[in-house]
Amino acid sequence: MTMINQMRVEARKLLTLRGTYVVAGLTVLVPAIITAVRIGTEDPNVEFPTTASRLELLGGSLPFNALFVGLGALLTAGEWRHGTAVPTFLAEPRRWRVVTAQVAVAGLAGTVVATLTAAAIRVTAHLGLVAWDSPTGFGADQWPTMLGVVLGGVAMTVIGAGLGAVLRNPALTAVAVGAGGLVVEMLFGFFSSGLGEALSLTLAVQRLVVEDGQGPLEIEGLFTLAGWAAATLAVGIRRTATADI
Prior knowledge:
By secondary structure, the chain is an all-alpha fold. The protein has twelve helices and no strands. It has helices spanning 3-16, 18-41, 44-47, 51-60, 66-81, 85-91, 95-131, 142-167, 170-191, 193-199, 201-209, 219-241. The longest helix has 37 residues, at 95-131. The protein starts with a helix and ends with a helix.
């Protein structure tokens, strides 16, 4: 089976899971709700007076979203949870191809959902500020922030897919990424604050989506997320290749 055909199979699996639509819906709605709550509990004329603070409103709802991780883990972890690992790996004995296809499909799904999430945050922020009779103040500089939201969501989905192949439980995977990321950050930060920051998932996503004086889409954030994605994929392939089915 070619890689394209394998991806089609995995995409079909993902689209037949009810949990896919539940998690995807929550992934879009939760950041939008957070945005609405933030606008509703603050005076926009005081809280968001500058371009930088308005951009932070767009990206600040998604500094770290475990729902993206859970979405990515649905395919890889669900393979074992739903008992489909046996027929899957009998049909394609080269297990690394299966895991790679699953992660690729998870990345594509993450792209779609993250784009919808960015759009939902943007629309919610606009309507909320208009409802408060406050100028939205959004210009062309909002697009890097929106792109950061998309890239952050895609990266977390891929990381979830890679780690899901190891832990075999979507919920556990989401918790592990959230808690484990903080543990890694604190552990390495004890020896070197720079190393702790370099490995921080939360800080990496914030560098993509939150204006901090240097601008969003900082390359360090992309490198951190790419490194985590590659590492979890490698561990997931290793775990799957040696697992008994």
